[in-house]
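Much of what follows relies on a compact textual record of a protein's fold. Each token is a code from a learned vocabulary of local backbone shapes. The record below shows the convention in full.
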Amino acid sequence: MSCTSLADRIDALLPQTQCTKCGFDGCRPYAQAIASGEAPINRCPPGGEEGIAALSGLLGTPALPLDRSRGEPGPLLKARIDEAHCIGCTLCIQACPMDAIVGANKRMHTVLDDWCTGCDLCVAPCPVDCIEMVPAGRAWTAHDAAQARQRHQARQARLARLAADNARLMAPDLPESPPAREPDSAADEAARKRSAIENALARARARRHATRS
């Protein structure tokens, strides 16, 4: 089994909340770290003991106790914005790995409940503490995980395109070089000019000689 296919199988068992509590920048990097032996299987609080058991079965390794220093498992939460106090700073929008928060600069923001994974990454950046995590009132499903993976991948691709576009815009403009002349053509042109001058001088000498005669 290749490392890539193993990472795919591990990623399929992770909840795709993209909460980064495992210490990696999302579920896919964590899956790759597990596949390469760089991380243990017990760092995912949203997956809980069931997730550890599934990973243990896939890898054929002993199950480990959940690393509770990474967070506590529990029911699915969702972010809620106190819209009366939202100042429209967009920091929560930038932090959300799911594009689950919508709004504009200096305008009220709101959360798309069906897209929110409960990762709580939007809470800390809020400068006015107007975001809280509340019970979602439902369970996280495999369908939710599949949809969240697709949305996260789409966001990552969009951010990569924006970064590339910004890099092109910030690149210094290089001065345009004058069109290069072919060395042979330039030499031929100079030779033609010398020949024309020499011929003109020869004709002038011939006329002077004829006049004197």
Remarks:
- The beta strands are 77-81, 101-102, 110-111, 131-135.
- The mean pLDDT is 88.
- Helices lie at 3-13, 27-35, 48-59, 91-95, 142-170, 183-212.
